[in-house]
Amino acid sequence: MAQWDRLRQLPIAYRQQLHELYDRDALPMDVRHYLAPWIEKQEWQRAARDHAFAMVLFQVLLENLDIQHSRFVQEESFLLQHNIRRYKQNFQRYVDDPCALATTILWFLEKEKEILESAELAEKVQLLQVEPEAMETSSQQDLERKLAGLRNEVQCMEHTIICLEEQQDEFDFKFQTQKLEAAVVDEARKKEQIKALQLLVNKLNNCRKSTLSGLNDILDRIQDIIDVLVKKELVEWQRRQQKACIGAPDNVCLDQLEKWFSCVAVCLFQVWEFLTKLEELVGKVSYENDPVKVQNPTLQKRVDTLLRDLLKSSFVVETQPSMPQGKGSLVLRTNVQFSVKARLLVKFPELNHSMKVDVSMDKEAPQIKGYRRFNVLGTKIKALNMAESTNGGMVADFRHLTLKEQKSGGGGKGVSDISLSVTEELHIIYFNTVFELKGFSVELQASTLPVVIISNSSQQQSAWASVLWFNMLSQDPKDVMFFANTPAATWPQFGEMLSWQFLSATKRGLDDTQLEMIANKLFGKKPNYDSCTVPWSKFTKENTPDTFWVWFDGILMMVKTYLEDLWRDGLIMGFVTKGKEKSLLKKKKRGTFLLRFSESVIGGITFSWVEITVTGEPDVKTVQPFTKVDLSQIPFHEIIRNYQILEAENVPENPLLYLYPDTPKDKAFGKYYTEKSGEDSPYIKYIKTKLVFVSKENTLEARSPMPSDMAQGEGLEPMNGLCGEAAVLEQDGDLYPLTPPLESYDPDPMMNGSVEDPEPPQDLLMYLNNPNLFDNDLLQDDQSLPDFSLQGFNCLLPQSCGSFP
């Protein structure tokens, strides 16, 4: 199939790209369409280098245009006749340089191939069931049709203005001729001439009225499209950007909006030029009750208003402020650099590097007691340009800005008694520029979403909570008083936001079962949670310092840092209550286990498994939670792999056999294991030790009396870390205390002091995975290492959840 025919059959989005490609005079689409077979058969690459060959093709092109013109004359296609004649005249400028024409046509053909290739790639992606970044909605398709209709109307109006000028020139010529001949012609001839001139004036007047009516219709179309762009598409993009800032997988690409805004702006400036042309024509020929004199000022004012509305809405913040090492966007710290990017959606290449953008803070700060004020430091003025954008947009990319608190003239003098915490204070950064083109000028301003400004890294967790809450609920992106009267979140909103946190951090969100456990934790057991609401205080203030957000964020940070692969592969059930855990495991075979997050230890994860008692009843056991202290020493999958119970016969046994529901442990976790066994073990070369958590089962009953709630299967989780007997090494008949190689623990500043520095575990032993490998020969490389055998075991007490009836 010919290339042009393939292009015409593409989906509307790609045909739109084709329209934009040919929205220029270098190669009119009419010429490309009617001469498509001939154009595609020629060797334009050769012609671009060979002047003689290019001249031959140039002459043939003109002959083909003559043929098409004759055809349209026969078909009485007046508009096409005119267009083809004009195209031929335009091509005459290549008579001295036909190679330039060949180069131009070659460029267009290459761009067509790029459009085809992108369309074919998108089709392949769809066949592979890969979700596309964005799908056209019916409203967007309707907007595309309206824009295509607008471009067609403007193109027809351009032809109408040309015809009007020709008609006026005809009248002017005959009128001037009649004036010259007035003295020599008889009265009868003079009357005939006056009558003919009157007919021409009437025709010209009707043509002017028709032109003005057409321009009004075009402006009605533009008004309708601007309403859709500004009040719907742009608002929806702004809401998507808000959600994307807090982890939502929403598409925030501005390329499509830029095409739409630019298309409308180009059409408006064309209408501006049409009105200017009408003024010029009126200056040459006018008469009593001339409609152009009456209507043109009103039309000009309307064009100005539409242009001003469109351009003011087209200046946006493409990338919200963020610090390189921040927890998320919109949390800034004083004296720490941050970046932000502004973008103009109306793209005129002639404005590249000519529009200067200036950055400022809080034009009108709210009158709140203690409200701080800040100065922006760094490179505060940049030009909008296309070089700093990966997609050719007009952007000003500020990468080295900092904030400094004002020492005077700030808060403390507010008239309001409202008092906000530092992390509830919201601030806005503004961007100002001036758009000037073709005599039209307008000031533009864009603003960021509200940012939270902190002075210490320990405030990041609380600041991020404010950013989450604002962008989850606020429909007003400039509402800096949001936390003066903070609204509550519905459970569907809240649960979705929590899922986004995991999705953005680990590429896997929360499923309905996990969200139900969280809802149960917040509201208790209910048949349906949709009508439940979460107040701001319950999210971040109740049970201080261990608030709900601190608990949830502690889990999130642990998963992101230590457990991301396991979580992404669905191996961690995570959010499940102890009661639910019991009901799931008691129905399974011995050795079935699951992994869940601790409800009482911040940033803790534990596992429970089912045993069968001597009476044949299921018994669920749970280990104390592992935190970053443990996971920083040994990967969690290695803990699961090597966890052992020391039975009465002193034969270690791993009770973890099947990951819930019935996946063999090594099949589930095998790909994560960091070493092989036997001769392939890296411990042969590097005499390494690792922690293995072992429990003495024969001490469980004596050391872990079962409270009544545990007897009911609820399973308590102690808060004081690992416990058990002192760890020792036996060497040459003597016992030596063993100090495990644990790193000193620095509290996580993101936890706001909620995690206490635990006492050094006394029950951790250094235990080798393959004790038989450690003989005297292996120690020859390092004579400083003693020859020892490991006979002691570190004790980690499982906790019984009780027997089941």
UniProtKB/TrEMBL annotation:
<dbReference type="InterPro" id="IPR015988">
    <property type="entry name" value="STAT_TF_CC"/>
</dbReference>
<dbReference type="InterPro" id="IPR008967">
    <property type="entry name" value="p53-like_TF_DNA-bd_sf"/>
</dbReference>
<keyword id="KW-0963">Cytoplasm</keyword>
<dbReference type="InterPro" id="IPR012345">
    <property type="entry name" value="STAT_TF_DNA-bd_N"/>
</dbReference>
<dbReference type="InterPro" id="IPR013800">
    <property type="entry name" value="STAT_TF_alpha"/>
</dbReference>
<keyword id="KW-0597">Phosphoprotein</keyword>
<dbReference type="GO" id="GO:0003700">
    <property type="term" value="F:DNA-binding transcription factor activity"/>
</dbReference>
<keyword id="KW-0175">Coiled coil</keyword>
<feature type="coiled-coil region">
    <location>
        <begin position="140"/>
        <end position="167"/>
    </location>
</feature>
<dbReference type="Pfam" id="PF00017">
    <property type="entry name" value="SH2"/>
</dbReference>
<dbReference type="InterPro" id="IPR048988">
    <property type="entry name" value="STAT_linker"/>
</dbReference>
<keyword id="KW-0010">Activator</keyword>
<keyword id="KW-0238">DNA-binding</keyword>
<dbReference type="GO" id="GO:0005634">
    <property type="term" value="C:nucleus"/>
</dbReference>
<dbReference type="Pfam" id="PF01017">
    <property type="entry name" value="STAT_alpha"/>
</dbReference>
<keyword id="KW-0539">Nucleus</keyword>
<dbReference type="InterPro" id="IPR001217">
    <property type="entry name" value="STAT"/>
</dbReference>
<keyword id="KW-0805">Transcription regulation</keyword>
<dbReference type="InterPro" id="IPR013799">
    <property type="entry name" value="STAT_TF_prot_interaction"/>
</dbReference>
<dbReference type="GO" id="GO:0003677">
    <property type="term" value="F:DNA binding"/>
</dbReference>
<comment type="similarity">
    <text>Belongs to the transcription factor STAT family.</text>
</comment>
<keyword id="KW-0804">Transcription</keyword>
<dbReference type="InterPro" id="IPR000980">
    <property type="entry name" value="SH2"/>
</dbReference>
<keyword id="KW-0727">SH2 domain</keyword>
<dbReference type="Pfam" id="PF02865">
    <property type="entry name" value="STAT_int"/>
</dbReference>
<dbReference type="InterPro" id="IPR036860">
    <property type="entry name" value="SH2_dom_sf"/>
</dbReference>
<feature type="domain" description="SH2">
    <location>
        <begin position="567"/>
        <end position="673"/>
    </location>
</feature>
<dbReference type="Pfam" id="PF21354">
    <property type="entry name" value="STAT_linker"/>
</dbReference>
<dbReference type="GO" id="GO:0019221">
    <property type="term" value="P:cytokine-mediated signaling pathway"/>
</dbReference>
<protein>
    <recommendedName>
        <fullName>Signal transducer and activator of transcription</fullName>
    </recommendedName>
</protein>
<dbReference type="GO" id="GO:0005737">
    <property type="term" value="C:cytoplasm"/>
</dbReference>
<dbReference type="InterPro" id="IPR013801">
    <property type="entry name" value="STAT_TF_DNA-bd"/>
</dbReference>
<dbReference type="InterPro" id="IPR036535">
    <property type="entry name" value="STAT_N_sf"/>
</dbReference>
<dbReference type="Pfam" id="PF02864">
    <property type="entry name" value="STAT_bind"/>
</dbReference>
